[in-house]
User: Fold this.
Amino acid sequence: MSFNAKIKAEILKTLIEVTSPLVSEVKLNIGKDGISLRAVDPAHVAMVDLQLNKEAFEEYQADEMELGIDIDRLNAIMRLSSTGDIVSLEYDEKNNRLIVKVGNLTRKMALIDTAGMPDPKMPTLDLPGKVILKASEITKGVKASESISDHLALIVTDDAFEVFAEGDTDIVNLKLPKDSLVELESDGKYKSLFSIDYLNNMIKPLKGDIPITIKVGNDNPTRVEFDIAESKGHVIYLLAPRIESE
Amino acid sequence: MSFNAKIKAEILKTLIEVTSPLVSEVKLNIGKDGISLRAVDPAHVAMVDLQLNKEAFEEYQADEMELGIDIDRLNAIMRLSSTGDIVSLEYDEKNNRLIVKVGNLTRKMALIDTAGMPDPKMPTLDLPGKVILKASEITKGVKASESISDHLALIVTDDAFEVFAEGDTDIVNLKLPKDSLVELESDGKYKSLFSIDYLNNMIKPLKGDIPITIKVGNDNPTRVEFDIAESKGHVIYLLAPRIESE
Amino acid sequence: MSFNAKIKAEILKTLIEVTSPLVSEVKLNIGKDGISLRAVDPAHVAMVDLQLNKEAFEEYQADEMELGIDIDRLNAIMRLSSTGDIVSLEYDEKNNRLIVKVGNLTRKMALIDTAGMPDPKMPTLDLPGKVILKASEITKGVKASESISDHLALIVTDDAFEVFAEGDTDIVNLKLPKDSLVELESDGKYKSLFSIDYLNNMIKPLKGDIPITIKVGNDNPTRVEFDIAESKGHVIYLLAPRIESE
Assistant:
């Protein structure tokens, strides 16, 4: 069983940023055509699914296998890498370790037994409201809402996308009409409520103006998707709704 | 009763920086020619008076009225604005709210009842020592003093401005001779002691090399003034003296 | 007894950065040709020796004397200086103070009685493994190790320099082969263990790519040296080994 790959440091850091808010350990599914992971947070509120095609790597050679990764350990060495560094990953079957090399620096990282690790299924969702917008917009809406409430509504209508939060005295509203969105597809009004803490975790890895896709239904989960690694990788984030108490 | 205005984000942020160290709530006096505020800290040691002419605004239309503002709430949305953003302010009389818009983001902010809010009078002061200097100079003098004492003296003589602090063992002294000042007017030596904590609050909104005017008497308050909003606004800061214990 | 000198702010800051992790008070030995200091931390694990030739100063005039410096006090005024500022130092014999001036700012700093202050001797050490490398390399090795252990090994062989740390599950290794070092001199393998806390203090003042010399023996202290002040000054850092418990 072998796994030998080289990848740009910033792509591996994105994998860490996407996964670490939800879980401390993750199972990497290594395949012939790339790697993938799927993780659910302990409270079962959010799921992240990440794919990295082998084209996202500088070099890639792998048998099919699972690697149990402690994300803090991987992050400890990745924090010492710089943009432009190439990171080498090698499976050491004998010692059950992943050997991570950045330049002259090596970390031989113990792997975690994947036997007990979950294999979450991606639920099938019917989410009829869909928008594509710049990441910075949703970031601004979440940040503005967190000062007045612990939850907010994502709303897609036939002519706009809205973030809406209501506190004891104040209201925050981000309204993006159709012409300030990259794309909008909706035959009506769809609205669900979400935890701002979870949305804050979700927006952490989002950089500047990358386009992200948000799908919304009525009192249903939201599905947020964006490309990584120059479109040679993809992230799907699912977040369960909060049920309106009124 | 209507109030509708547009203003550069950085000017509104200056208003927050000047006011927030002293009070958490402030009454804005809205007039036909601009807005003003006057606030005194709970210990009655410092007073700030701020004027913004209607020329400081991009658009301005107002009846005379008072708006009670919670500064933290205003700051929460202003923190999400960028330099160059234009902020729209609109009084919603029906709901007693101020509607603050930055781009596509809206905060409908509950107003505070101004009935109980103080209307401090600006005391008439005879402060015969006057200097104009770069803001960065007074900032340096206060920062150097805070490591040895909790109070310092501001001193104006006929040929220099000085900041003087004395600790148990050490002395800090900033001496600016007349030729390194923008202006000096004094017929003798004037000296008063002030709390460094309060001075630290006062210097927070001071940026780089803007000229500030400082007036000093003997054991009297100091009056510090500077322009904001490209001279279309003005701040006066009064600070009561500490009485020398010797 | 007189001491009058002018020096670039950044050189005086380096003196503070080198010394402050080990001691809070230090004796400066003032001589006709420059100043020096030698300090040992309270646990007697690390020693620092610093020399500044009079050529490192803009102006220098001194009788031989000792000055007891409280490093926090010196740092308080130096923090307000900028790169390029010239700092003036003057001994005030009458008041037993050091008068430190940065621009218009003066701190008259009480001196500490040097009578009780130690005069540590530099031990003679036979350390046959010697390498010269870029400061950033050792910094990276120490930072990578601190996530898995509280100590690491420095190893010099006849063809490489290595940093090696072993935790409960993981191994960190920085290996610099001869051709990626500035210089290597060793007739065999030399290895000693050191505390990562102390190494972290040692690397703090190291900037970017300056060359540093590291000497290693077997279970012996390490000696780390580097130039400061454009080679008109020099720092020697000695660190006692930790004894391997196996």
